Amino acid sequence: MARKKKILTIAGGLILIAVIGTGVYFGTRKTETNNTELAYVYRVSLMNPASQVQRMAGTVEPQETWEVQKSSDREVEQILVKAGDEVKVGTALFVYNTEQTQTELEEAQLEIERLDGETENLKTQIAQLEKEKKKAAEDEKFSYTTQIQTAQTDLKKSEYEKKAKQVEISQKQDKIANATVVSEIDGIVKSINDGSETDMYSSDSNAFITILATGDYRIKGKVNEQNLSEIQEGEKAIVRSRVDENQTWSGTFTAVNTDEAENNNNNMYYGATSTETTSSSYSFYVMLDSSDGLLLGQHVYIEKDLGEEQSGIWLDEGYIVNADSKPYVWTEDNKGKLEKRDVTLGEYNEETYQYEIQSGLEESDYIAFPQDFLEEGMKATHEESETISDEESTDDTGKMEESEEISEIESEE
Which intervals of the chain form a coiled coil (predicted)? Predict the structure, then answer.
């Protein structure tokens, strides 16, 4: 199995970076300040793979959102809820003003009465004309026929107008009967777009009232444009409480919505820093296996599910000397000096290139990356500034001396 290591050398000193599997660690530095050799050591607990998982910010959202649209031709008389209110199915949300509709209804009903009278008159007129036609002379019958046809046309027109007016009346009656708009779901009022309310969680919706359903939740996250590849649709995710690190929920990543970008100057990765002044972020969701214990609007961390967590201490193989025979590591003793510490190895993880340390080390111990110049009794340091030698010092502008050359050497075992 090929294993790669990268080494960065700087003239006047040495910085070694071991890249084994997915772990990246700075190695020890050999420097000489006032004739004292120093070795940079690292805390074992910080090499725990779980501490290196990238986290993204997330917010608990409902899987369903109901947007209530207001009729453009109607005026709202009263709003019965406010943002943040909890509502049930049937809870009254707002009431339309029905005064104008009531007036129009009464006018339509009067029009129906007029049409009814007109219809009866036309029917009577037609019957009388047909009676007179039978008694009329032959040369007068044509005139009666024309009058009868005209009256019949007017009758059909009147009947059509009555049916149309009846539909109009029915619609206005429904408007009055349904003047109070009620909730169709159980949820929480997120926003009311009446020009005065402010969204609870911010919304781009143009709906008059937006209600977030209670019950099943999902997690909404955002990923920076530089880290889009970190989110793969269908991959397993872990949602972690910000309050209790041990409280987690499992779920599955959805695809990143790259159609809608949000410009910002925040890096959404927890604990990350960036030299970029502006960037774009994109939304994605985590569909939860269970949302028990989550609260709507709760802020959480999102991270990849890398499988079963490794318990105990695991170290990159590069830190272990003589792994195949008598393994040991370079550690700091209680006097701040380097010593060789024998360790007992357990399982080997071929995916992360790490050994399980069964005994010999504690998470509170400090270790150094093996290099040829290390010796027992050498002074160990935790401060990176202590490892910078006079030869690696910066000039007045804070830049490295131009004579220092940086080269990258990649070796493959």
Answer: 98-139
Which residue, 20, 110, 32, 29, is CA-closest to 353?
20
Closest CA to 58 of 214, 201, 200, 209: 201
Residue 386 has pLDDT above 50, yes or no: no
Residues 6+ apart with CB under 8 A from 261: 225, 280, 281, 282
pLDDT tens digits for 294-337?
Answer: 888 899 999 888 766 566 888 889 999 999 999 999 999 999 99
Q: pTM (2 decimals)? A: 0.44
**Cα separation of 357 and 23, whole Å?**
17
Tokens representing 212? Answer: 């977030």
The backbone torsions φ and ψ at residue 240, rounded to the nearest 5 degrees and listed phi first, read -120, 135
**Structural domain boundaries enclosing 117:** 99-175
* Residue 162 and residue 122 share a domain: yes
The structure tokens listed for 304 are 């990849």
Residues ≥6 apart with Cβ < 8 Å to 259: none
How many domains would you assign to the chain?
A: 3
Please check whether residue 381 is in contact with residue 387, taking contact to mean a CB–CB distance below 8 angstroms.
yes
Burial of residue 295 (CB within 10 Å: 0-12, 13-18, 19+) is exposed
Which of 260, 277, 304 corresponds to the end of one domain? 304
| Edge-first strand listing for the sheet containing 209-213 | 65-68, 209-213, 187-192, 86-87
